[in-house]
């Protein structure tokens, strides 16, 4: 839910709050994918399609779309729903790159996206 404290002077979701919500969703998706500690490395692209008004419900959908040796690219979509309507539309999208880290704090391999075990090449 977009509460007044999450909004800017236009009464819409502040961009930094949307980024925070989306980074959290990317973190959860990447952690569930590799079951390791992860950190955000890079925000590749962010597109705000429409304003997200105060009082709206938001749904975040995040999925791993690409893997590297220790990195995962996560696409996050933020959907807007009106509180008392079944109307739903895409509010913004972002692509985040997260890296799995081992107990030593260094990057550690993640499984291939196709499920064949750890990816050892670049």
From TrEMBL:
Keyword Hydrolase assigned: yes
GO molecular function: long-chain fatty acyl-CoA hydrolase activity
Domain HotDog ACOT-type residue range list: 1-104
Claim: Transit peptide is one of the keywords in the record: no
PROSITE patterns: HOTDOG_ACOT
GO biological process terms held by the UniProt record: acyl-CoA metabolic process; fatty acid catabolic process
Domain of life: Bacteria
Descriptive protein name: Acyl-CoA hydrolase
Family affiliation: Belongs to the acyl coenzyme A hydrolase family.
Keywords: Hydrolase
A GO CC annotation given for this chain: cytosol
